[in-house]
C-alpha cells in the first residue's frame, strides 16, 4: 500500500509537523530517509513499514487548493499535514473528511465530495484520543469541509487552532506519535456510517468512532443540511470506503430538515439509525 503524507511550505503547522516527523523518526532509528528524487523542488522522504510504502512530500501551495495532486503522486491514500484554525483558540488536534456539500469557499469543487477512508480516520482518532490525555490538547473529528478535490482517498489531520499551537513542538510531537503509531499498526477495516446533522465538531460522530465498532466517513453538519439533496446523499454513500450500510442521524441536530431528510432516505432505500437510540 502506498501512502503519501503531504506537507506545505505555506502552512506553519505543516512545516513544524514535517520537521518533527523527520527528526523524531531518524532519532528513533526508524526508516525515514531522504530519497534521490524531488517534488516541487523539495526533498522527498521515504519510509517502508511492512507492506506500506510511505512517502513524505512537500508542496509550495496551500493544501486546500492542491486539486488533482493525486495525478502527480502515486499513492493509494493521501494524508494532509495541516494547521487547524478556530475562533475559540483552543488547543486542538483534529481530523476530517474532505469535500463540499455546498459552495467551494475554501478550495475543492462545489457540491463535490472526495473519497473518505473511514477506517483510517477512525484509527487516527482512537490513537489521538489516547495521546492527548494529560495534555492541553483535545482530540476531535470535524465535519466534511473544504478542498482539495481529487479522485484518490484522502483526509486532513490538523494541529491548531492558533499560531501558537501551529508552532508548538509538543503539539507536533503528539501529532507525529499518533501518525507513526497508526502507520505501524496492522490496520483494520470497520463497517462505515454516514453521519447526518449536529454541529461542526460532531459529538455523535466522535462517540461512534470511539465507543462503537463503526467507522464514520462523511459528516454533513446541521449548517449544511439544506445542501443535502439526493445527489449529495448518493455521493456521500458512494464516497466512503468501505461503503456505509446506513446513515447515523444526529437526532437532535437535524433541526427543521428532519422530515425532509427522513423522506429522502426512505425514498432512496437507505437505512438509518437515530443517535438517541443507537448508543443504548
How are the SSEs placed, and which strands pair?
Elements: E1 2-8, H1 12-27, E2 33-39, E3 42-49, E4 52-59, E5 77-85, E6 92-96, E7 99-100, E8 112-113, E9 116-117, H2 118-131, E10 138-141, E11 154-161, H3 163-166, H4 169-184, E12 191-196, H5 203-211, E13 214-220, H6 230-238, E14 240-241, E15 246-249, H7 258-267, E16 272-274, H8 275-278
Parallel strand pairs: 1-4, 1-5, 5-11, 6-10, 9-14, 12-13, 12-15, 15-16
Antiparallel strand pairs: 2-3, 3-4, 6-11, 7-8
Summarize, please:
Helices cover 29% and strands 30% of the residues. With 280 residues, it is α/β, with parallel strands linked by helices.
Describe this structure in words.
This protein is of the alpha/beta class and 280 residues long. The chain folds into two domains: 2-184, Aminopeptidase, CATH 3.40.630.50; 191-278, Rossmann fold (3-Layer(aba) Sandwich). It has eight helices and 16 strands. The strands form four sheets. Strands 2-3-4-1-5-11-6-10 form an eight-stranded mixed beta sheet. Helix 5 links the parallel strand 12 and strand 13. Helix 1 (12-27) packs across helix 4 and helix 2 (118-131) crosses helix 4 (169-184). The longest helix is centred in the first third of the chain and has 16 residues, at 12-27. The N and C termini lie far apart (37 Å). The mean pLDDT is 95.
Amino acid at each position: 500500500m502506498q501512502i503519501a503524507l503531504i506537507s506545505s511550505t505555506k502552512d506553519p503547522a505543516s512545516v513544524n509537523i514535517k520537521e518533527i516527523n523527520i527528526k523524531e523518526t531518524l532519532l528513533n532509528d526508524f526508516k525515514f530517509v531522504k530519497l534521490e528524487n524531488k517534488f516541487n523542488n523539495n526533498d522527498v522522504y521515504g519510509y517502508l513499514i511492512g507492506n506500506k510504502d510511505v512517502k513524505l512530500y512537500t508542496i509550495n501551495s496551500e493544501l486546500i487548493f492542491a486539486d488533482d495532486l493525486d495525478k502527480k503522486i502515486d499513492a493509494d491514500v493521501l494524508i494532509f499535514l495541516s494547521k487547524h484554525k478556530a475562533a475559540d483558540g483552543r488547543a486542538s488536534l483534529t481530523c476530517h473528511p474532505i469535500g463540499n456539500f455546498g459552495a467551494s469557499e475554501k478550495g475543492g469543487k462545489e457540491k463535490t465530495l472526495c473519497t473518505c477512508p473511514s477506517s483510517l480516520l477512525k484509527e487516527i482518532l482512537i490513537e489521538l484520543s489516547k495521546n492527548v490525555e494529560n495534555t492541553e490538547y483535545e482530540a476531535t473529528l470535524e465535519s466534511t469541509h473544504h478542498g482539495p478535490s481529487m479522485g484518490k482517498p484522502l483526509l486532513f489531520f490538523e494541529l491548531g487552532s492558533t499560531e501558537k499551537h501551529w508552532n508548538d513542538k509538543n503539539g507536533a510531537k503528539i501529532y507525529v506519535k499518533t501518525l507513526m503509531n497508526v502507520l505501524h499498526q496492522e490496520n483494520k477495516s470497520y463497517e462505515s456510517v454516514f453521519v447526518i446533522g449536529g454541529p461542526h465538531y460532531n459529538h455523535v460522530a466522535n462517540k461512534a468512532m470511539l465507543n462503537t465498532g463503526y467507522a464514520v466517513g462523511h459528516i454533513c453538519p446541521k449548517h449544511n443540511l439544506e445542501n443535502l439533496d439526493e445527489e449529495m446523499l448518493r455521493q456521500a454513500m458512494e464516497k466512503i470506503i468501505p461503503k456505509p450500510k446506513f446513515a447515523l442521524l444526529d437526532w437532535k441536530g437535524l433541526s427543521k430538515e428532519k422530515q425532509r431528510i427522513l423522506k429522502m432516505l426512505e425514498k432512496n432505500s437507505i437505512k438509518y439509525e437515530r443517535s438517541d437510540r443507537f448508543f443504548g
